[in-house]
Amino acid sequence: MVPQTKGAVIFLLVGCIVTISCSNNKKNMPLIPVDVQAIPMVHTEDASSLVSDSGFTRYRMKAKVWDMYLTDSTKRYSYWHFPKGIYVEQFDSLFHVTGSIVADTAYYFEKNGLWQAIGNVVAKNIDGTTFETPELFWDSKAPANSTNVFYTHQKVKITSSDGSFQYGNNGFRANQSLNPYFLFSVKAEINVEESPDSLRQNPNRPDSLRSP
User: Fold this and answer.
1) Which among 51, 58, 62 is positioned nearest to 144, based on CA atoms?
2) What residues contact 114, with CB distance under 8 A and at least 6 apart?
3) Residues 69, 80 contacting (CB under 8 angstroms)
4) Torsion of CA 45, 46, 50, 51, to 10 degrees
5) Is 22 contained in some domain?
6) CA–CA gap between residue 148 and residue 209 (Å, rounded)
7) DSSP 8-state assignment for residue 82
8) Which residue of 32, 48, 51, 157 pairs with 59 in a disulfide if CB–CB is 3.0 to 4.6 A?
9) DSSP label at 84?
10) Domain range enclosing 140
């Protein structure tokens, strides 16, 4: 019995020493402040999600990385971040694709319902018209027929399905369908193809373009 008692005492002494040592180490450990707004509360990779609006599936969203950030004050997700790009498709009631948006990165601010797409943004409507701009805002809470659903103050190039294009040096604004749209500081260029016969028959052409 004596050896067992000594063993128990030794075990207790070793336990006390380890406990004291751990306590001292914890006191000496540096405290690193953590900013909850700088660390995503939810991190998702290769994300694919369907988004509903008024009870109907309206969008499909795909992203390589989807981070959700939380604020202390509201305990709601203050914003989403898509640092490696995003692709969004828009559907009608029959699940036909009516438009799309692709960008290098994007943010979604939950409180305002505002999307911000940044870097090589390309949007397309159902008519095949494409909108190219370095930055595009999408107000998901605006009425669908409002002309301020999509907007930007950056330069935008709009290319129609026939190949003609326009520039808006100070941006544009449009409704939910990106049609109609309104350009600011417009510059337009139209591609016209003419046959050699039409060049010869046009008297207003320079002599260098006419057949002898």
Assistant:
1) 58
2) 108, 137, 138, 139, 140, 141
3) yes
4) 40
5) no
6) 47
7) E
8) 51
9) T
10) 42-189
Mind listing the pLDDT tens digit for each residue in 114-146? 999 999 999 999 999 999 999 999 998 899 889
- How many domains are contained in the chain? 1
Please list, in sequence order, all residues whose beta carbon lies within 8 angstroms of the beta carbon of residue 110, skipping any fewer than 6 positions away.
Answer: 76, 77, 78, 79, 80
Mark 13-27 as b/e (b = at least 16 C-beta within 10 Å). eeeeeeeeeeeeeee
Q: In the structure encoding, which two tokens stand for residue 96, read together?
A: 């036909």
Return phi, psi of residue 34, to 5°.
-115, 125
Which residue, chain included where needed, has tokens 């790009």? 85
Tell me the pLDDT band of 14, cut-offs 50, 70 and 90: very low
Please state whether beta strands 97-103 and 77-82 pair in parallel, antiparallel, or not at all (unpaired).
Answer: unpaired
* Closest to 210 in 3D by CA, of 113, 158, 198: 198
Prediction pTM value: 0.69
Q: Tell me the per-residue pLDDT of 157-173, one tens digit each, with 9 for 90 and over.
A: 999 999 999 999 999 99
What's 158's domain CATH number? 2.60.450.10
